[in-house]
Amino acid sequence: MIGFYKPKTYRSTRGCCICKAKSSSSRFTDSRRYEGDFQSCFGIHESRSGDICNACVLLVKRWKKLPTGTKKNWNHVSVAYINQLVWTYSI
């Protein structure tokens, strides 16, 4: 029985929509399933879509398991990419 098969993607041309990693030891997936949690989990105010790396998926899943009322988020993951751009262009 051969069913629908989607190959695992270990590289992304645009990179992860959160951390912008373009390659990973684990796969990239479509971010549609997790986009509703981006604002609370990563402190992102603009909409992001595309591929998401497994590391960021695991952060979303960890964030969902936190007790209600917890203020913890992983905004440093999305901010690190912006800081890297500023540092690169300032040289």
Molecular structure report:
This protein is an alpha+beta fold. The protein contains three helices and three strands, in the order E-E-H-E-H-H. The radius of gyration is 15 Å and the shape is globular. The mean pLDDT is 79.
Spans of at least 5 consecutive residues whose pLDDT stays below 50 are none
Shape: globular
Secondary structure: helix percent? 25-40%
Assembly annotation: single chain
What layout of secondary structure does this protein have?
Blueprint: E1 9-11, E2 23-30, H1 38-42, E3 51-53, H2 54-64, H3 75-90
Antiparallel strand pairs: 1-2, 2-3
Give structural attributes.
single chain; alpha+beta; 3 strands; 91 residues; 3 helices
Characterize this entry briefly:
InterPro entries: FAM60A. By secondary structure, the chain is an alpha+beta fold. The protein has three helices and three strands.
